[in-house]
Amino acid sequence: MNGSFLDNLGRVYGLYTGGFFVFILLMAVLEQMGVGADTIGLLFVGFTIFIYAAIGWLSRTMEVEAYYVAGRQVPAVYNGMATAADWMSGASFVAMAGGIYFGGYSYLAFVVGWTGGYILVNSLMAPYLRKFGCYTVPDYIGTRYGGNFARILAVIVLVAASFTYVTAQITATGTIAARALHIPFSFGVWFGLLGILLCSMLGGMRAVTWTQVAQYIVLIIAYLIPVIWMSNAQGFGLIPHFTYGEAVQTITGLEAQYGLTAPPEGVAGMKALTTPHVEPVGGLAEWQFVTLAICMMAGTASLPHILMRYFTTPSVRSARKSVAWSLLFIFLLYFTAPALATLTKLQLLDPSLPTAIIGKTIEEVQALAWVQNWSSVNFLAIVDHNGDGILQLNEFFMREDIVVLATPEIAGLPYVISGLVAAGGMAAAMSTADGLLLAIANALSHDLYYKVIDPKADTAHRLIVARVLLVVIGAAGALMAAMQLTGILGAVAWAFCFACSGLFFPLVLGVWWKRANTQGAIAGMAAGFISGSVYLWYVYTGGTPILGLNDLRFGIIGMAFSLVAMVVVTLMTPEPDAEIQRMVDETRIPTGMPILDPH
Amino acid sequence: MSADYREIPQDVRDRYWAKTRNLTVVILVLWFIFSIVVPLMVRPLNEITFMGFPLGFYMTCQGSLIAFVLLVFFQNWRQDQIDDEFGVGD
């Protein structure tokens, strides 16, 4: 099956994409025939999860190489798609456009950071780690710097970053499953976890790779269709991306006309629009933008679930190629998000459009179906502060993360589109959760269990340990998610900051500075991770942020300490031996055998 | 350690790495401009209108992103050339 499947990838995924479009059309027909919105949402989410689970089952394996690195056979373009799905989480899909809607310029730091980071991945990391031939990121640290202590430190940073992140993703799957299947959130979380484990448990990296490709196709279709539809309805042409400049200017004009004044009284968990769409606010705006962007970019280049995707390609050259494809596939969604935010805002604000609500009577607005739907679940609120019966800009409150989900309804699109968007959000959250769970379980099973605890373990034993860990960590993540400690977006930014604090410099300097040694790497990981965590604790418990570096940007502090500690300690201790220096030389040349022997 | 280590002479390795490093530096300088310098200059750039957008806003939501995509494909094209020039491609 394996050989013929790899030869026919184009046909298989072409057929799959065609089949998905047929399914969308079928749902549209059912909607016309009077099938309810809830049933359609349930069919969308249920059908797509069933497909992913089927792919997971077909990709089951008992081989170590297939389980950890998909047999190193994934072609560059498909690895690009899988990375894009691995990368774009529930936060990117559900929360990003909403963030831009409410945050304007300041929020675009995520868009720049989450794309620009791939330049760092391509320039500094992916090709060299691929040449190394490792199974996991701590595997690289452990071999390049030698010694179990460095390896275990890398595992600790990896687990801290990835676990923070995976909790947010399981929360997102729980939210969507709860809405689509009409079950309580705490059940939704476990249901989401079940779907995630079905994709990854039997086939490890191989299964996750091929489900992620399928999930990318669903999520990108689900993101683009509503935007293109709205754009055509509003006269911005087939592709709105290059033509919505006029909408941006209209919004700036309308903001001046309506006035961006803070509401006299807020609504818990929701926001009114008070930030201009275009102009940066306050003297620190640019500084805050670049510090956040730097954390997100360095985090991108240090997050193990992303780096390990580039271990699955057949060669160094194809690893580089697949970074480029990843960025292109991610770019498709990220340069659409600001267009979505802009067009949705225009829908609500522009009095010349039939969908506008600002300036209408409150009675009229409250009669709209989508306003009723979302306010009934407390995701939206209307408060007539000045009591004039007319809806002002600061009297309309929404939760940030419903902008994408509610957009099809706001724009008056058929319900089939809402169902599609729910399936897309589910695909985004599941694919990221899968990659993260696998990164954690693989690091623990390979680096901790096999390399440190029981180096004589046989293949069957190692793969059983890997799977048990996958279930245990997934369950721990679901338990955390059910407690709802942090919001989706905050947790994601923290994960990036943890990763770059502890891992960025030890990884980069391992390739780019031959002199870097074990002691330096240990100091770099420990100093970065500890200083970052302490600073996070300081600002999170109410400390005044230094230089405007709040809890989303603690990676700046961590990285600074990490770099200084690593360089100073390295220079104070002897240089690495000739064997390690030869290893670094060898890492820099694409040709030749991998550094690590096949396990 | 593989046999290749001895097959590729040290001076070829050094020249290959010097070229690779120079390419990387050029790419990172351009990356720095689009990801750091441009967002820092957003206010003056917003005075300019580009395709109907204020330019600073345009760059942060689209322009820099396009630059990143072009950069990464250019880098790979050039790196492949360097690999082939020294016969170290895989």
Task: Characterise this structure.
The complex is a heterodimer of chains A (599) and B (90). Chain A has a domain at 2-344 and 413-488: Sodium/glucose cotransporter. Chain A is 71% helix and 1% strand. Chain A contains 25 helices and 2 strands. In chain A, strands 1-2 form a two-stranded antiparallel ribbon. The longest helix of chain A has 39 residues, at 415-453. Chain A starts with a helix and ends in a 12-residue tail after the last helix. Chain B has 90 residues and is mainly alpha-helical. Chain B has one domain. Chain B contains 4 helices and 2 strands; from the N terminus they run H-H-H-E-E-H. The radius of gyration of chain B is 19 Å and the shape is elongated. The two termini of chain B are 17 Å apart. Classes of the chains: A mainly alpha (599), B mainly alpha (90). Chains A and B meet through helix 7, helix 12, helix 13, helix 15 and helix 25 of A and helix 2, helix 3, strand 1, strand 2 and helix 4 of B.
Main attributes?
heterodimer, A: 599 residues, mainly alpha, Sodium/glucose cotransporter, two-stranded antiparallel sheet, globular, B: 90 residues, two-stranded antiparallel ribbon, 4 helices, 2 strands, elongated, disordered N terminus
Task: Output the structural class of chain A.
Answer: mainly alpha
CATH topology of one domain in chain A: Sodium/glucose cotransporter
The total strand number of chain B stands at 2
Largest β sheet strand count, sense and barrel closure of chain B? 2 strands, antiparallel
Number of helices, where a helix is a run of at least 4 consecutive DSSP H or I residues of chain A = 25
Radius of gyration of chain A: 24 Å
By helix and strand content of chain B, what is the structural category? mainly alpha
Shape of chain B: elongated
Shape of chain A: globular
Indicate the percent of residues in helices of chain A. Answer: over 70%
The neighbouring-strand order within the major sheet of chain B is 1-2
Number of strands of chain A: 2
Question: What is the radius of gyration of chain B computed over CA atoms, rounded to a whole number of angstroms?
Answer: 19 Å
Identify the CATH class of one domain in chain A: Mainly Alpha
Contiguous low-pLDDT stretches of chain B (5 residues minimum) are: 1-5
Strand content range of chain A: under 5%
